[in-house]
Design goal:
With 114 residues, the protein is mostly helical. The protein has one domain: Helicase, Ruva Protein, domain 3, CATH 1.10.8.290. Helices cover 55% and strands 4% of the residues. A two-stranded antiparallel sheet has the order 1-2. Strand 1 and strand 2 form a beta hairpin. The N and C termini lie far apart (34 Å).
Length: 114
């Protein structure tokens, strides 16, 4: 099992925000991406952060993964996201890819596959 599965999601979330803000994007945009991907809303997401759940638990308890995840394609951390076989690792990399697109200046409509 990958050690990232056991990491505290709130720590990774802080890194996502820092990455976005370094590129003049916002915490709100990061939140919008997370909500779009996982189905969390503000209250349920904040509850997960307060409980300091692991990455594994965060995705296991996600209300509804977006049906458009199949449209997320490309390479992140040297792996093609659409080819990752482990379902949990694929969800993690989907989120990594979306945050990476945000940091690279893509418009939210494109990131959210609208």
């Amino acid at each position: 099992m990958s050690r990232v599965f056991k990491m505290n999601f709130s720590g990774i979330y802080k890194m996502y925000i820092e990455k976005a803000e370094r590129k003049d994007r916002t915490k709100e945009e990061v939140d919008e991406i997370i909500y779009w991907l996982t189905g969390y809303d503000d209250a349920s997401f904040q509850a997960q952060l307060e409980k300091e759940v692991s990455v594994e638990t965060f995705f296991a308890e996600a209300p509804q993964m977006n049906e458009k995840t199949a449209l997320i394609k490309g390479v992140i951390c040297g792996y093609r996201v659409e080819d990752i076989e482990d379902p949990l690792m694929q969800k993690i990399r989907y989120l990594d890819k979306l945050i990476d697109e945000l940091a690279k200046g893509k418009k939210m409509e494109k990131i959210l596959r609208k």
